[in-house]
Amino acid sequence: MPKMPWHPASGTGIVTAENAKKVIRLARYGCTNRPFFHIVVMESFKEVRAPPIEQVGTFDEVVNERNEKLVSLNFERIQYWIANGAQMSKPVAELLGLSGFFPIHPRSYMLAWRNRQAADAEAAAAAAAAATAESAKQETEAKDS
Amino acid sequence: MLRNTLLAGSSAANGSFGILSGLPNTVCVQCVRWKRKPLWLGTAKSKLFRIPERPKIPKDETIELLRLHNNYRTLVRSIRHHITEAVIGSQARVDTELRAKQEEEDFVRCVALNNEWNESKAKARDERLAKAREVRREEILRKIIAQEQLAAKQLENIEKTVKRVKEEAITFITEKNIDQAIEDALNNPVDHNWALDLEGTIHRGKYVQPQANEGQRQKRMQPGV
């Protein structure tokens, strides 16, 4: 049984500090070894598990059987909060970029090209290993003959 | 964050008492801070000159990232402006002049309606009150007539009574004829000492007159005899 919050996770609607900076960010609501995030609007000084003003989406970091990470976003409320001057955390900005609401975040591009580079390097290494193995085989065959 | 481990003294288990302790069991209390060194111990000797390796980002990648970030920030700022304007534009605004005009019109309409209602109500009220007044007048008249009739009847009754009494007054005993009345009474004694049977027959003179044994009765009634 996960540790349940004492407040409604969908948001209390209570703005305790009217002039404080509001931020749209992730709040971890999963269990041990099973992360699950709510996308919430909160005052920036609040703790992660403090009662949020409003929940505007969810993010399931763990891939499902079809290799998907599920995200839900309430764009109307996100627009409302952005118009009211709410800032955004980096992970949320990345999710919004991937969902097409915002431009793609530079971090997403960076991650993509680094993954590509790693894949290329791995492929090159594999090809080199295969070539060396082939040459060694040919050498042994020549020696035998 | 402190976990206390209580280690029971082994003196009691060994069957011998501690030298200094007056108690059979001494308790050794040790504080274990999550199996880690205390905070005040500082960096370990082996780790003292370890320098974490800085991430090496190629020059072209740095330039590219900077460009992307600049673009991203510009775009996001413009999108933010757009969203803000859209949200503000979609909010319902109050036209104060139109609102005041509408309120004025509404007030005039309300006043007219109120006057109309007042007139109709006043008309109905007048009618109702006139009817009530008529009913009340009739009621009062009826009561007055009834009262007069009652008074006349009472007067008649009184006159009748007076007439009867005047007729009877001839037989009254007055100061003038009292002696005559006494005399008549003494001369004509009436004997009420009679009996009545079931048929209603009066039996007179069957029993002894009271005055015949009056002396005996008085004698019997005397106290102390």
From TrEMBL, chain A:
GO terms for cellular component: mitochondrial inner membrane; mitochondrial small ribosomal subunit. Gene3D superfamilies: 3.30.1320.10. Pfam families: Ribosomal_S16. Keywords: Mitochondrion, Ribonucleoprotein, Ribosomal protein. One of its GO terms (molecular function) is structural constituent of ribosome. InterPro entries: Ribosomal_bS16, Ribosomal_bS16_dom_sf. It comes from the Eukaryota. It is found in: Mitochondrion. One of its GO terms (biological process) is mitochondrial translation. Belongs to the bacterial ribosomal protein bS16 family. This is Small ribosomal subunit protein bS16m. It comes from Neodiprion lecontei (Redheaded pine sawfly). The gene is LOC107225119.
TrEMBL record, chain B:
GO terms for cellular component: mitochondrial small ribosomal subunit. It comes from the Eukaryota. Its main location: mitochondrion. It is found in: Mitochondrion. Keywords: Mitochondrion, Ribonucleoprotein, Ribosomal protein, Transit peptide. Belongs to the mitochondrion-specific ribosomal protein mS26 family. This is Small ribosomal subunit protein mS26.
